[in-house]
Design a protein that fits this description.
- Belongs to the pseudouridine synthase RluA family.
- Helices cover 19% and strands 23% of the residues.
- The two termini are 21 Å apart.
- The chain is of the alpha+beta class and 431 residues long.
- The protein folds into three domains: 65 residues, Roll (Structural Genomics Hypothetical 15.5 Kd Protein In mrcA-pckA Intergenic Region, Chain A); 89 residues, Pseudouridine synthase, CATH 3.30.2350; 174 residues, Pseudouridine synthase (2-Layer Sandwich).
């Protein structure tokens, strides 16, 4: 068993009580219309100005800047329409809705250059389906009001283009003995252009234009009562509401920032200060549309949002080549920890999107490590296939009993293996 060597973490016994979710099917099959809308974070509902436009029918008629070198068509169009995903642009191109110099182009990798005239119409969102799947779930706690799940790394929380199956929602639908849910696709920030799973708050589903009341499709969120979510690569604890009262209570707790969330990460390098508070707004990275960025200064409407993370170094590892860092969130913006870690100069190990590449990790570790460790170290680092980030602790007030309940689950084997080896090289406890 992995030991984090800190008194702030404890492992609580799993609640063994099983409970069928079939009685909440009517709740799951209704839209959560009492909440203002969707967001790319797990922020409180009152911080959400409203559901994003779905961009259907948005037109772009523009000439490529003469100073621009050759660019992929999908990349250029994405950069010219703020907020639309690259996957959505690619779908529009493949649907024949984009022309270059008057000729329809259905190749997403078509190269455009300065002087080219591009006409584009964004395609309608395509309905997505969440099918019940018999997926093993690590259920940490369950009663008739809430469900706490320990999500494995690489599991997407909800279906999205490129991730239609194997999702946490599909597993919950099977666990609930609920039917297929059909919903209108949404714009999401992605880790790999068309695959996403950001921390998110309550989601309001929209009825599909082709909705058939006689079918089993539901006018609901495809995320049954999920009040927040974790990135695809992040492992750890996530809470699901099982009725409307629980959903409202949990949403209010997120709004007031009373939900306790503790994350641990393995970083590339050690921060200059072993503890601190990062109060830097986060917005979409203007240089890379599949990631967010910490943007110093006053939050700008539509460009960045207030974001605060507290961190502290638990251990310095491998003579300072890495660190075990604890994070506590005051807000819950998209990729908040990952963006703030990059801003501090300590990207999460394995986070290829935010700079924690294998080469970066080894460039910091090897100079500080005796040669006898290099072979095994290279092997372990090469095997890391996700950001080393784990949602360790989740605490909230029970929606029905009012009791403060807390759950902790230690990181999975992939995280534990690299941490153990870095400790074997050298460890220095800090806090």
């Amino acid at each position: 068993m992995l030991a984090l060597n800190t008194t702030s973490f404890s492992l609580l016994p799993q609640n063994p009580k099983p409970f069928s979710l079939s009685r909440v099917s009517s709740f799951i099959c209704r839209a959560f219309t009492k909440f203002p809308g969707d967001s790319d974070s797990d922020d409180s509902p009152d911080e959400i100005p409203g559901r994003r436009s779905n961009y259907s029918g948005v037109k772009l008629e523009e000439t490529v800047d003469g100073k621009t070198g050759k660019l992929r068509l999908d990349s250029w169009v994405s950069s010219r329409i703020d907020g639309v995903s690259r996957a959505r642009v690619q779908s529009s191109i493949r649907s024949g809705l984009v022309s270059v110099n008057g000729r329809v182009t259905d190749k997403v990798s078509h190269m455009v250059k300065g002087g080219d005239k591009v006409d584009c119409t964004i395609a309608d969102l395509k309905p997505l389906r969440a099918e019940p799947e018999d997926i093993p779930l690590d259920i940490v706690f369950e009663d008739e009001h809430v469900l706490v799940v320990n999500k494995p790394a690489h599991m997407v929380v909800h279906p999205a283009p490129g991730n239609a199956t194997g999702t946490l929602v599909s597993g919950i639908l099977h666990h609930c003995s609920l039917p297929t849910i059909s919903f209108l696709g949404e714009e999401v920030l992605s880790d790999a252009e068309d695959a996403s799973d950001d921390e998110l708050n309550v989601f309001s589903g929209n009825r599909s234009p082709n909705y058939d009341d006689s079918s089993v499709m539901c006018e609901s969120s495809v995320r049954p009562g999920i009040v927040h979510r974790l990135d695809k690569g992040t492992s750890g604890l996530l809470v699901v509401a099982k009725n409307e009262n629980s959903l409202a209570s949990l949403a209010e707790q997120f709004k007031k920032h009373t939900i306790k969330r503790v994350y641990v990460s393995i970083t590339c390098g050690v921060p200059a200060s072993v503890a601190g508070r990062v109060d830097i707004p986060i917005g979409r990275d203007s240089n890379n549309r599949i990631r967010m960025a910490a943007i110093p200064g006053t939050p700008k409407s539509g460009k960045s949002r207030h974001a605060v993370s507290r961190y502290k170094v638990i251990e310095k590892l491998a003579r300072g080549g890495s660190a075990l860092v604890e994070w506590r969130l005051e807000t819950g913006r998209t990729h908040q920890i990952r963006a703030h870690a990059k801003y501090l100069g300590i990207p999460l190990m394995g986070d290829e999107v935010y700079g924690g590449t294998k080469n970066m990790a080894l460039s910091l570790l090897q100079p500080k490590t005796p040669p006898m460790f290099h072979g095994k170290l290279s092997q372990l680092v090469s095997q890391i296939d996700r950001p080393c980030l784990h949602a360790l602790t989740l605490g909230f007030r029970h929606p029905f009993t009012g009791e403060n309940i807390h759950f902790t689950r230690l990181p999975p084997p992939d995280f534990a293996e690299i941490l153990s080896y870095l400790r074997a090289i050298n460890t220095e406890k800090v806090l």
